Structure formats: structure tokens, C-alpha cells
């Protein structure tokens, strides 16, 4: 994967816009994930009392309004788009697609399980792997059927959130604020412990991860997979020039709706409020689409033409970089590394995410100038095709 089934090189050349979009999505996911890597307070849906200044609140508001859920949905859409590229690669190679994809899904699941236990308990690879099995089962359905199923899945998730917000008293099964704060403090301290303490902390969060995957992330990801598959079939990103009028229309519609929804989500308490999550679920796709349209226009502009070459290598190595972000979090915040858990402000986390992703872009560029694939992509490709891929780039 990169974080999707598609890191295969197309002989006639890759769709570099997809790589750049994937890199952009990877950055947005890191901005959100690092808050959970750095402290147990966000996972317990409470604010760390050490960071309650106006600037801390502003940083949390920015992440919630502009990043939360938007990039996860974009990444899932790109996964579905790249699924069609895998289909094309199998067709060109004269191989059975389903067998290849099943092996790829197995590889993703194994890597995700390792990530959960050893690196970061908020992994999405296992969720993607299971959702991809369902996508594989439906990959022959028509575009119209795929769109109906995607809409149905998204509607079911939204309906469940609305019903929960209106009729279910969360206080009946959620800990009180005082209990949540105490739990967060204890868990953050566990992050500073030994390897066994950290593994135990990751495993303690497994039940919540499964619930979230089954109720929200899994169905919404599968819906985006299906939309991406339809877009891939229609070659949505092939031949884009950046001047298409539809891109401006997407911006004009997506930004007002998406930003209004993101602001409402943040103002209502983000993940602490089920109604806020429902608002975000409805409006986040609009903001994600506006981001895509904006980036496509930037990628094809003369002034910002360097953006594509900067982002695309990180997107080509998205699986390696995603796992690398988990490693960064482990080394920065846990007792295995610097032990910074609970001591970095929201503003500091934003700065770290920008610097760390900038380093990943530079390393990705350097790596792919010498090697054909990222390390994780290379291993996954080997398992997918049952053939050892070339390690170094073939010079022409």
C-alpha cells in the first residue's frame, strides 16, 4: 500500500497528482494522530489541564476545524482510487486480481497489528484491510450500485450518530469528567514506562479501537473506498490541467460548507459531542473536496509547480511514512525514547508535525532517487505479487 492498495508503478508513468494528494492527506492525518500519540487525554475525551491557555485552545480548535476527519476521508477515497490502479496492474501482468489483493490485504493487516501492539494504538491499517475485503467482494458492481451502497453506508453511520445524540444519554456509560481526567493521567504515565507498559497501554485501547472501527471509521472508509473506485474507473485524476472550471466550483461550494461544519464541530466540543461528530460527518467531505480542488490547481500552477515534486515522493512511500510517523511518536513521547508524553502543548505538537513531515518529504525524495520503492512498499509488493521486486531504481 501506500496507505492504499496502490503503490505500483504504471509503466507509462504514475499519476503524480494522486501521489501528491496522498502525501498531503498523510500530513493531515499526522496532525491529528500526533495529539493522540503525545498524551492519553484526547483519547479520554478530556482536555489536559496543563494546557488550557487561549493559544492552546486555539491550536486545538484549528486541528478540529481544519483537520479532524477531513484527511481520513480523503485518504480512504484515494485508497479506493488506487484500488482500480491495482486492478489495471494485475490485468497488464496477466495475473488474477483477487488473489493478489487478498495477499495485499493480509500484508496490510499484519502490519497494522504490529503497529497497534508496538507503535501506535490508533492504527487504521487493520480497519482498511477488513474494509478492503468488502470492497474486493463488491469490485465488479456497477458505478451506480457502488454509489448507492456508499450513500447507504454513510447514511447509516449518520443516522446512528443522530439517534445517539438525540436519544442516548452518554453519561450512563461514559466515565465522569473527573474519572476521565484520572484515567488520562494514569495512562499518560503508563506511556512513560517500560516496553511492557507501553504494549499494555496499546492493548488496553484495543476495545475502543474495534468499536470505533465497526461503528464509524470502517463504514465511512468503505463508503469512501467505493467513491474512490468509481472515480478511478472514470480516470478522475487523469489529464488534469488545473484550469478546469469544476475545480473552482468545488472550492466555491466546498469551502463555505466545509469550513462552517468544521467550525461548528470544533465549537460544539468535537469528539466529546455526538452531535458535533454528526455535523462533521456531513460537512467534512465538502472541505476535503475543496482541499483536493485547491491542491490540484496549485500543482498545475507555474508559481507553485514545486509543490508536486515535494509532496509526491511522500505519497509514493505513504505506507512507510505512515508507519514512520508511529515510530516518531513512539520515540518522542514514550519512555522508550525522549519521554515527552504529557509535556508538549498543542502548539508544540502542530510545530512538531510540520517539521517531522517536512523531514519525511525530504527523506522520501532522497530514498526514491535511489530505490524503486519505500521499504514497507517493497515488502508488501513482494507479498502481493509473490515475486521479489527490484530494490534499486533502474537507470535509463
The gist of it:
This protein has one domain. Helices cover 71% and strands 0% of the residues. It has 15 helices and no strands.
Plain-language structure description:
The protein is mostly helical. The chain has one domain. 71% of the residues lie in helices and 0% in strands. The longest helix is centred in the middle third of the chain and has 28 residues. It is globular, with a radius of gyration of 20 Å. The N terminus is likely disordered. InterPro entries: Bact_Transport_Assoc (IPR052529), DUF418 (IPR007349).
Secondary structure elements and pairings:
Blueprint: H1 16-37, H2 54-66, H3 70-93, H4 97-119, H5 125-137, H6 143-167, H7 177-191, H8 195-204, H9 206-233, H10 245-267, H11 274-299, H12 307-316, H13 318-333, H14 346-368, H15 375-385
Helix pairs in contact: 1-3, 1-12, 1-13, 1-14, 2-10, 3-9, 3-11, 4-5, 4-8, 4-15, 5-9, 6-9, 6-11, 10-11, 12-14, 13-14
- Separation, N- and C-terminal Cα atoms: 26 Å
Weakly predicted, low-confidence segments: 1-13
Radius of gyration, Cα only, in angstroms?
A: 20 Å
* Global outline: globular
Taken as a percent bin, the fraction of beta residues is: under 5%
What number of structural domains do the residues give?
1
Number of helical stretches of at least 4 residues: 15
Transmembrane segments: 21-41, 61-81, 101-119, 125-142, 149-168, 209-230, 250-268, 274-299, 319-341, 347-368
Keywords: Membrane, Transmembrane, Transmembrane helix
Domain DUF418: 231-386
Organism: Gordonia caeni
Which features would summarize this protein structure in a list?
transmembrane helix; mainly alpha; DUF418 domain-containing protein; single chain; DUF418; 15 helices; membrane; transmembrane
